[in-house]
Amino acid sequence: MMQKELFEALSQAFPGVKLVEAEPLKHRTSFRIGGPAPMAFPRSAAELAEMYRFLLARGCRALILGAGSNVLAPDAGLSRLILCTREMADLSLTAPGRITAECGVLLSRLASFARDRGLAGLEFAHGIPGTVGGGIYMNAGAYGGELKDVAVATEALLPDGTLWRAEGAAQEFSYRDSAFQRRGAVILKTEFALEPGDPAAITAKMQELAQRRRASQPLDLPSAGSTFKRPQGGYAAALIDQAGLKGRGVGGAAVSEKHAGFVVNLGGATEQDVLDTMDLVRRTVLEQSGISLEPEVRLWRMEEEE
């Protein structure tokens, strides 16, 4: 189905949903890189599921985008429709110690919501610049905490549009991975189980972690956070630093001088600049340590026609 016809069909089937024929991905990703793409903005988990199935029936498998904080998008843009979850913001206390959040809820908002209700366990997530959906998909974590520690059940769509509710161990979380990622599922909402805590103590912990982030991470430059996954038996940042790669890069992209685990956009970086810088890092680290680094950032150029 041609894009114009698809947009007309979406507009008729989902009145009131925001549709943009050419949304600049550089405005929707933390790398600030990427050309135009067709984009729709479902307003709830139910609407996302209905829209995803509607598109499947017409031969279109949509991409899903949350905060765009772990994505490198192509400069040429994408022809594939993107469903952006940022207007999906339902967040509620569903039982004592239980919070349910839609996939578009920012992790920072989720952590603050929990703190304000005297619930602890999400302090580590307050500074992660992503959404619940993206965080669950990759089991996001920081400073010793991971979402697997508190996520007790997740509703998702399988690639064929079937609704799947995974509880407990069925979510199969591991380091930066989950059953949802391995099965190509679309996160709809997640339920979290938390422990009672003192809001003042929770706030203090959040402030402590925020200070540590500001001191150690290049938060003043566009990036996608940690560029590479932690290899077995070591840390990517340490290996990159030991290889003498801080400050080195291609074009407008470089390894951060402040934190070797981050490839940053120094200004005007292209997708290829970042890819070439990542390749430089991987080749050099492999030559010097024998360890092959695996990207943590998602490279959408490789997924465009899936």
UniProtKB/TrEMBL annotation:
Taxonomic placement: Bacteria, Bacillati, Bacillota, Clostridia, Eubacteriales
Cofactor: FAD
GO molecular function ontology, one term from the record: FAD binding
PANTHER family named in the record: UDP-N-ACETYLENOLPYRUVOYLGLUCOSAMINE REDUCTASE
This protein's GO CC annotations: cytosol
Reaction it catalyzes: UDP-N-acetyl-alpha-D-muramate + NADP(+) = UDP-N-acetyl-3-O-(1-carboxyvinyl)-alpha-D-glucosamine + NADPH + H(+)
Name the UniProt record assigns to this protein: UDP-N-acetylenolpyruvoylglucosamine reductase
Location of the active site: R176, S226, E296
Subcellular compartments: Cytoplasm
FAD-binding PCMH-type domain: residues covered: 32-197
